[in-house]
From TrEMBL:
<feature type="binding site">
    <location>
        <begin position="59"/>
        <end position="63"/>
    </location>
    <ligand>
        <name>GTP</name>
    </ligand>
</feature>
<comment type="similarity">
    <text>Belongs to the TRAFAC class TrmE-Era-EngA-EngB-Septin-like GTPase superfamily. Era GTPase family.</text>
</comment>
<dbReference type="Pfam" id="PF07650">
    <property type="entry name" value="KH_2"/>
</dbReference>
<keyword id="KW-0694">RNA-binding</keyword>
<keyword id="KW-0342">GTP-binding</keyword>
<protein>
    <recommendedName>
        <fullName>GTPase Era</fullName>
    </recommendedName>
</protein>
<comment type="function">
    <text>An essential GTPase that binds both GDP and GTP, with rapid nucleotide exchange. Plays a role in 16S rRNA processing and 30S ribosomal subunit biogenesis and possibly also in cell cycle regulation and energy metabolism.</text>
</comment>
<dbReference type="GO" id="GO:0043024">
    <property type="term" value="F:ribosomal small subunit binding"/>
</dbReference>
<dbReference type="InterPro" id="IPR005662">
    <property type="entry name" value="GTPase_Era-like"/>
</dbReference>
<keyword id="KW-0547">Nucleotide-binding</keyword>
<feature type="region of interest" description="G3">
    <location>
        <begin position="59"/>
        <end position="62"/>
    </location>
</feature>
<dbReference type="GO" id="GO:0005525">
    <property type="term" value="F:GTP binding"/>
</dbReference>
<dbReference type="GO" id="GO:0000028">
    <property type="term" value="P:ribosomal small subunit assembly"/>
</dbReference>
<dbReference type="InterPro" id="IPR005225">
    <property type="entry name" value="Small_GTP-bd"/>
</dbReference>
<keyword id="KW-0690">Ribosome biogenesis</keyword>
<dbReference type="GO" id="GO:0005886">
    <property type="term" value="C:plasma membrane"/>
</dbReference>
<dbReference type="GO" id="GO:0005829">
    <property type="term" value="C:cytosol"/>
</dbReference>
């Protein structure tokens, strides 16, 4: 049997469903999924097997009009992921259609190196009528010549198997790049930090959207088979600390509990999680914070 392996970049606007599709393809939660936009910061790779093919998904940050250093670094990471991949899949939300953001991405696709296979996946198809889907597909293919077009629902799984099979067949021939049972190439410390950041995002809603980051400071394997994980939540202002703590510490306790439970399930063993909050006014301008998120600090330059 011929083995195949390669990288697939999922690109699109924020909230297009890239993280949900990564998790659906891989069959495990490797990428942060929330109702908020711009939550995926690092290029998280999920590894999936389809027959004799190994599919390595690059879940890029959403592409949007950047305003801050962090925004610019995220968008640069997204285009970098697309340029390096063997296959690029553009996700477009069916109900939002041809937005200005999608038009900008279509223009950017013209600059992708020749030889890359670029497909279109119209996501969230359950939200619109069939005739509207066909019209949207026609409009998008008139703007850019896609190799193939798929109608999917990443959340419900509709059409995802068909997309996965096509990708598997289109990947270049070659040996597998990861062990068969590996699902992500991110260090576990970063996956753990992402899980806690997701819980913070879900709990705090509009109060503190992108002014915080989480880092795993230490990870200790204990003799009894459990793990002790110490994490730091960095915030930009002193007032943010109180929001995360909540009344009598209730908010931080709820976040810690939710994150600990998910980490325990993900690792398949008991986890002792300890969270600390530190105020670092300029963390959005610190090179080290970007390295921890898998982003290039220089990419954030205006």
């Amino acid at each position: 049997m011929t083995t195949r392996a390669g990288f697939i970049a999922l690109i699109g606007e924020p909230n297009a469903g890239k993280s949900t599709l990564t998790n659906r393809m891989v069959g495990a939660k490797v990428s942060i999924v929330t109702h908020k936009v711009q939550t995926t910061r690092a290029r998280i790779r999920g590894v999936a097997m389809q027959g004799e093919s190994q599919l390595i998904f690059v879940d890029t940050p959403g592409m949007f009009q950047p305003r801050r250093r962090l925004d610019r670094a995220m968008v640069a990471a997204a285009w970098g992921g697309a340029a390096d991949a063997d296959i690029v899949v553009l996700l477009v939300e069916a109900h939002r259609g041809m937005t200005d953001g999608v038009r900008r991405i279509l223009e950017g696709l013209q600059d992708i190196p020749k030889g890359r296979k670029i497909a279109l996946a119209i996501n969230k198809i359950d939200r619109v009528k069939a005739e509207d889907l066909l019209q949207l597909s026609k409009s998008l293919n008139e703007e850019f010549t896609f190799l193939n077009t798929f109608m999917i629902s990443a959340e419900k799984g509709h059409g995802v198997d068909h997309l996965r099979e096509w990708i598997a067949a289109e990947l270049p021939e070659g040996p597998w790049l990861y062990p068969e049972d590996q699902i992500a190439d991110l260090p576990m410390r970063m996956i753990a930090a992402e899980m806690t950041r997701e819980k913070l995002t879900l709990r705090l809603h509009q109060e503190l959207p992108y002014q915080l980051t989480v880092e795993t400071e230490s990870w200790q394997e204990r003799d009894d088979g459990t793990a002790r994980i110490d994490q730091v939540i960095y915030v930009a202002r002193d007032g943010h600390k109180g929001i995360i703590l909540g009344h009598k510490g209730e908010t931080i306790k709820a976040i810690s509990k939710a994150s600990r439970e998910e980490l325990t399930e993900f690792l398949g063993r008991k986890v002792h999680l300890f969270l600390q909050i530190k105020v670092r006014e300029n963390w959005l301008e610190e090179k080290e914070r970007y390295s921890e998120m898998g982003l290039n600090f220089k990419d954030g330059n205006a």
